[in-house]
């Protein structure tokens, strides 16, 4: 076997990956036959793979088992196009040239240990619930989910999307629970947009046909298999992207802003209490800064006189109008939140402390803002983070500026208007055929 | 984003420019928020206006001005004030007795028509030295005691009558109902002393009720609950609940009204250990007597303070309603009976009759 005997697909592979030093084309002995293998040394643990393949061959009765019949365990696809072969190689497969026909045989290979094991989630902290989190590996994630929901009707469909980047996306749903319309929509758009490259979640949302600009997230992302399992039970479709340690559940509805699926691990009364607190938190987060402006400059008659006097006192000597004051402080606060989000844990406390000093004491003593405003902003920021899901907090964080501007211009009427406005917006929002304002996803009622 | 939506956004944003009226808002620390407005006759002009502005420190700032009209006086105050004078929090109108006797038509018109004055504010009439009452301060009690005196959430007691501006306006326009404004006087250890009530006919003060009579007046209006009354020398009771039931009749000789007052009371002091029925009798007697006095006063002044005309409105023609106070009210046969139910006599067990 020499170069001149190379098949088209082999030449294609060699051309495509010619510049890669970790791409290997080797001749090895496999069950007494010399075969050509193609793989990436960084993605495939060759000795391990060969050892287990040899073992399987040995266990067969006679040594003459053709390689292509080797084992269903290893062989995943036989007749693939050259481009697909390249993708499969990049996914860590082993391509073997059949010694008899010269066609490519694709084997699932053992990976060198570059994936992390299942660990508690980094960004979500479940209390009184299962604490294993998703990892980067798609199959591990699907396995974790299957473990959490032992149900024969769980359906897992894997799609490979992308033309230059290959990405595996697993679509999981619970037959019988999931609304067939939603499943159909998601599956159709995955197939229709097969050629689109998916690198980020945003790419996937565009594959799924979601609007580019949307105030609230139309999906739920979670690191917890338990949450994902409950999402399945609720009738959602769960999507996994390879190398993304999150389960993305679609569609999201308004209720998800205040519900956590792990709430069900608590007695019912506690669940009601948590959800009530979160709802109050949402209202606080949205209206507090606007309300401050309303009460301070546009409609002070709404305050009780006792409060009005002490509010006036706390604003003595503050040079800016209330609107500018609030805007200024909100921006500083957003910067603190943004700065602390991704800081290394060793620097985080410094920013917190400096932020605390600036926001808490110095700025009030310098009479740049009133101390009532600090209370209002702190309350509104804390309230903001009572909501369930990090994604949902951001929409509310943005929307409070709309409320603020409307309040500054139109007073209490502006505040009311902007609150009505957000509901009008929600009412017009529809993700995956489901109206955002519906209360459940079962599809049993006409408005769901 | 396409061109159309950009245009639309710009258009909406440009609408804010039209909001010139809404942008010149004043922050709360740039406003004076007076709580009390005193209105009396001026020395050199028709009106003298005094505004009391509370502050957290406990000091009350006072702005004064005389002018021929209330709005002109306020305008002059605004001119000299370093902050915007905002009447939105005005809660109490104090009017001098002399002014009340000459008539409050202008004051009432102003209070109702001014957009920035809340019609939930209260009215009271000040007897004695008006200036002194308005300037009276009892430090270190902070700020708003003058308003708190009438506030049902703080200092109000059922002895004091409350009249809100809208009620006063209604009373001044009504053919069949008159009002009693509280009468106050500068206090010694507190801000005000309660002097009774002023009987108003239309917008004029025509007479006064003593504090005791005010109490019965309040009972009749079912407002008097939680207050203590002295029945006899050594007995006092707390009124838990007061209900009034009317039985009306329009006969050939004129209207007839029988009002039954049902009182649920609790005995709070009973030094002589009087039996329940004696206490009840004494209360009945006392209220009967006071009621008769009020009725006599009402007849003499031709004012329908208890609003009896209201009860007959459905039976009267338009003409009769208009003539109620002058023609029909003097002809009214009015009878008040009191029924007392002693709910509990606290620790004073009724002695078992042998």
From TrEMBL, chain A:
InterPro entries: Spore_Ger, UPF0353/GerABKA_families. GO terms for biological process: spore germination. The keyword Magnesium does not apply. It comes from the Bacteria. Keywords: Membrane, Transmembrane, Transmembrane helix. The chain crosses the membrane at residues 276-298, 318-337, 349-366, 372-391, 403-427. GO terms for cellular component: membrane. Pfam families: GerA. Belongs to the GerABKA family. PANTHER family: LEUCINE ZIPPER PROTEIN 4, SPORE GERMINATION PROTEIN. This is Spore germination protein.
UniProtKB/TrEMBL annotation, chain B:
Its main location: membrane. The keyword Signal applies. Transmembrane segments: none annotated. Coiled coil: none annotated. It is a lipid-anchor. GO terms for biological process: spore germination. Residues 24-185 form the Spore germination protein N-terminal domain. It is found in: Membrane. Residues 195-344 form the Spore germination GerAC-like C-terminal domain. InterPro entries: GerAC_N, Spore_GerAC-like, Spore_GerAC-like_C, Spore_GerAC_C_sf. The keyword Phosphoprotein does not apply. Keywords: Germination, Lipoprotein, Membrane, Palmitate, Signal. One of its GO terms (cellular component) is membrane. Pfam families: Spore_GerAC (PF05504), Spore_GerAC_N (PF25198). Belongs to the GerABKC lipoprotein family. This is Ger(X)C family spore germination protein.
